[in-house]
Design brief:
302 residues; alpha/beta; Arc Repressor Mutant, subunit A; D-Maltodextrin-Binding Protein, domain 2; 3 domains; two-stranded antiparallel sheet
Length: 302
């Protein structure tokens, strides 16, 4: 069955590992931690893979390299294979499983850390590595299995990725009370494009209509940063209902529901290939889903 595949030299686990690491890091220098000996080794190993498969696997991109379409496909096949071997080894050695979860900074602070840092989660379950990941990166990394799970606000993901809804959350608009005494005054300023806002990258694209003509005064990485800006008294902010705003006397909640969608949902997302590669993944997914859904339901709403 595999006679032709092993008829020539040039194919090995070390070479496939080098391709996966270079593709993930975006440069041979980063993949080798700037070690000149390893850089030379990685370059040689990838060249040997290209000679073996008779196809270009990497190409120059800026100061680094990126995988070609053939390189991405081979890296994906290799990653699945190496993950399967790694999981088999852990099982043979009786080691605890490790799962990587990607989410926004706000979700990590309010949902993931409270769930995963409990005594039961720490002592009875697998180990977890949490990463702050931009929404546009999450889907690609789930496909590549460089993330095992993720928490997203997307309604759908490209096949074969799957997701299950954890529960709803509401987007609230808060403004400085000293600048806007009434809700109608704040809405008028919003309509006229005169309401200075701190807007987080975590705001779903479907909520952009709420901003109307208002241009963000301050663009932030997360809702956590926007909340800090709101507390300084100069800007308003869009925040999830479970994020506690500054003291009530300092801010005013505005309801612009007639201007656009304000209700969204978080979902747990995964690649079904993970379930085939790791026999522990399904149990972990179900346990994680139940705990996260319960945590989201329990959060105090503002």
């Amino acid at each position: 069955m595999f006679t032709r595949l092993f008829a020539e030299s040039g194919l090995s686990l070390d070479r496939l590992k080098a391709l996966v690491e270079v593709g993930a890091s975006g440069s041979i220098a980063k993949a080798s931690a700037s070690d000149p000996v390893r850089q030379s080794q990685y370059s040689r190993q990838i060249k040997e893979l290209e000679d073996f498969f008779k196809v270009r696997l990497v190409e120059r991109h800026g100061k680094g390299v990126r995988l070609t379409s053939s390189g991405r496909e081979l890296a994906r096949i290799s990653r699945f294979f190496l993950l399967g071997l790694s999981n088999f080894q852990r099982g043979c050695l009786n080691e605890r499983q490790m799962f990587r979860i990607g989410a926004s900074a706000t979700v990590i602070q309010h949902l993931l850390v409270p769930v995963l840092a409990t005594h039961q989660a720490v002592h009875a379950g697998p180990r977890f590595a949490i990463e702050t990941v931009e929404p546009e990166e999450i889907e690609r990394r789930l496909h590549d299995l460089t993330l095992d799970f993720a928490i997203v606000t997307a309604d759908a993901l490209s096949r074969p990725l799957q997701l299950e809804e954890l529960g709803p959350w509401w987007l609230r608009l808060w403004v400085p009370a000293k600048e806007f005494r009434t809700e109608s005054a704040a809405l008028k300023a919003l309509d006229q494009g005169l309401l200075p806002l701190a807007v987080a990258h975590e705001v779903p694209a479907e909520a952009s209509c709420i901003l109307n003509r208002s241009q963000p005064q301050l663009s932030c990485d997360s809702f956590l940063d926007a909340n800090v800006a709101l507390g300084r008294g100069g800007v308003g902010a869009l925040l999830p209902d479970f994020v506690e705003p500054p003291e009530a006397r300092e801010v005013l909640r505005v309801d612009p529901t007639v201007r656009g969608k304000m209700v969204f949902a978080y979902a747990l997302a995964w690649n079904p290939r993970l379930m085939r590669l790791n026999i522990h993944a399904m149990r972990t997914r179900d346990s994680l889903f139940g705990s996260l859904r319960e945590r989201l339901r329990s959060l105090e709403r503002y």
